[in-house]
């Protein structure tokens, strides 16, 4: 029984940095996508397209975070 508890703790501890790394990768990708959106839609006439692009980046970010938790 003790062995199983120790094994479970080791697995949880080793999984934490992986999850944190995954979350960090998602954040990096999101920031990159938003920067790309702003570079591609920098004209005031492109405001609607910019918002759609940023919304898509946010949706991708949320999906990425959900994938990290699976």
Mean pLDDT: 82
Largest sheet: none
Radius of gyration: 18 Å
Helix-strand sequence:
HH
What distance lies between the first and last C-alpha atoms, to the nearest angstrom? 27 Å
Structural class: mainly alpha
Helix tally?
Answer: 2
What fraction of the residues are assigned to beta strands by DSSP? under 5%
Task: Detail the poorly predicted runs.
Answer: 3-16
Global outline: elongated
Topology, number of strands: 0
Helix percentage: over 70%
What's the quick description here?
Helix content is 89%, strand content 0%. It is mainly α.
Structure description:
The chain is mainly alpha-helical and 70 residues long. It has a domain at 24-70. 89% of the residues lie in helices and 0% in strands. The protein contains 2 helices and no strands. Helix 1 packs antiparallel against helix 2 (47-69). The longest helix is centred in the N-terminal third of the chain and has 39 residues, at 2-40. The chain starts with a helix and ends with a helix. Mean pLDDT is 82; it is low at 3-16.
What distinguishing features does this structure have?
0% strand, 2 helices, 70 residues, mainly alpha, disordered N terminus
What's the layout of helices and strands?
Elements lengths: L1 H39 L6 H23 L1
């Amino acid at each position: 029984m003790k062995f199983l508890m120790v094994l479970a703790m080791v697995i949880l501890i080793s999984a934490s940095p992986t999850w944190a790394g995954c979350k960090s990768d998602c954040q990096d990708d999101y920031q990159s996508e938003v920067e790309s959106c702003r570079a591609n839609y920098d004209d005031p006439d492109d405001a609607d397209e910019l918002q759609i692009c940023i919304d898509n980046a946010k949706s991708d970010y949320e999906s990425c975070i959900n994938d990290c938790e699976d």
